[in-house]
Specification:
alpha/beta, TIM Barrel, 2 domains, eight-stranded parallel sheet, 18 strands, elongated, disordered N terminus, binds pyridoxal-5'-phosphate, Orn_de-COase, lyase
């Protein structure tokens, strides 16, 4: 199954092969490559890595040394970013949802850029982080994304103008607008729609006499290695997405007229394909379903509660390193816990697995580097959080 190693490094492969126990493995050099490639494609956009997608100090440090800043969602993430070496000036509070106390804590840490999407939150920023720079988040439909991030966040253009005008009146700096097209966004059209909304907002702000200095294009850039329901690569149109983003930035600059700068907050795109979970087979069992049909179930040692929270929606490529030329059978895939949600696609979509898998055989869950370390529970059902191992750092180059 060596064809599954595309998008992924041989270093990751070596580290997985060396593991005799379950773990999450990251290849820092491949994360650095992905970052450089993104900078090459979109040189106009400064990167603020969305920390929640991989809150691992070494990963943060690696990206910060390359010039990235950090998008953090609260005081704990802000502290971690600063501890890992991110300068406060390149670190922002990107969560629209925050308490008074959290705003004050961020302000004390030296954070000056805050996202918002409501008048209430803007007033709280003015009270607890006086003089801060605010970014108003625009709503998007989330269509085309695997995770929409729609209704909970963002406001329409007219409301954004009101929020930013109010920010100015309250002594804050109306600094920017932001969007998020939804995580693992699979379409370039969603980006077009986001630029339409940004253009409408910049035009309305211009009429209101408000000039911003930044547009934050958010996250949503896809990982490349996931599989679709039929087992073929999902194959997101990344080049087309980059082209639409470049064109959209030009369009916004023309509307703005002045010196408009761009930020992006990628998470998944930077880390997903550079990380993998080394799990093992708990049991391959054949059980009759209520309809009487016997079905194979492959129970893995890792599931939704130890790193693979997104396994309900995502299909990760699986590698069975001890069974290179096996005969395959369709099996439903699930984690080890007593929760029936701990399964791939609700236990409805079978995936091919070697027929003669034995308990203890290693399984590599590829492209699972995004959100895996942040979704580790403290030990649901006693299954301990996975340890994290790194390769490709400066010391082992
Ligand atoms: C989660 C998040 C991101 C990262 O999203 P990805 O889809 O992983 O790129 C960026 N910005 C904000 C505000 C987020 O909440």
């Amino acid at each position: 199954m060596s064809t599954l190693i595309t998008h992924r490094s041989s270093r990751l492969h070596t580290a997985l092969a060396a593991a005799t126990e379950d773990r999450i493995v990251y290849d820092l050099s491949s994360i650095a490559d992905r970052y450089r490639r993104l900078r090459h494609e979109l040189p106009e956009a400064a990167i603020r890595f969305a920390l929640k997608s991989c809150p691992v100090d070494e990963v943060i440090g690696c990206l910060v040394r390359l010039g990235a800043g950090i998008d953090a969602a609260g005081p704990q993430e802000l502290r971690q970013a600063l501890r890992a070496g991110a300068p406060a000036g390149r670190t922002h509070y990107g969560n629209t949802i925050k308490s008074d106390r959290d705003i004050a804590a961020a302000h004390r840490l030296g954070i000056r850029d805050f996202a918002t999407d409501s008048l209430e939150d803007t007033a709280a920023i003015a009270a607890h982080a006086p003089g801060a720079r605010v970014f108003c988040r625009l709503a998007t439909s989330g269509e085309g994304a695997l995770w929409g991030l729609s209704r909970k966040f963002g406001c329409p253009p007219a409301q954004a103008v009101q929020v930013l005008r109010t920010a100015g009146r309250l002594g804050l700096v109306p600094a920017g607008v932001s969007v998020h097209v939804g995580s693992q966004q699979m379409t370039a059209d969603a980006w077009l729609a986001a630029f339409d909304s940004l253009a409408e907002t910049l035009t309305a702000l211009g009429r209101a006499g408000i000039t911003l200095d930044h547009v934050n294009l958010g996250g949503g850039l896809p990982a490349l290695g996931y599989l679709g329901p039929q087992g073929l690569p999902l194959d997101p149109p990344l080049d087309k997405i980059f082209a639409v983003i470049r064109e959209g930035m030009l369009r916004l600059r023309r509307i703005h007229g002045g010196h408009l700068r761009f930020l992006m907050e990628p998470g998944r795109h930077l880390v997903a394909d550079s990380g993998a979970v080394r799990a093992h087979v708990v049991r391959l069992a054949r059980r009759p379903e209520p309809d009487g049909e016997p079905r194979y179930w492959l129970y893995l040692s890792c599931g939704r509660f130890n790193g693979l929270y997104e396994m309900d929606t995502l299909r990760y490529p699986l590698v069975f390193p001890t069974h290179p030329n096996a005969e395959y059978v369709p099996a439903l895939l699930a984690g080890p816990t007593c929760d029936s949600d701990d399964a791939h696609a609700g236990g409805r979509v079978p995936v091919p697995v070697p027929r003669d898998l034995a308990s203890g055989d290693p399984v590599w869950v590829m492209s699972s580097g995004a959100y895996a370390t942040s979704y580790l529970t403290r030990g649901f059902n006693g299954f301990a959080p996975l340890p994290c191992h790194l390769t490709g750092g400066e010391s082992d180059d």
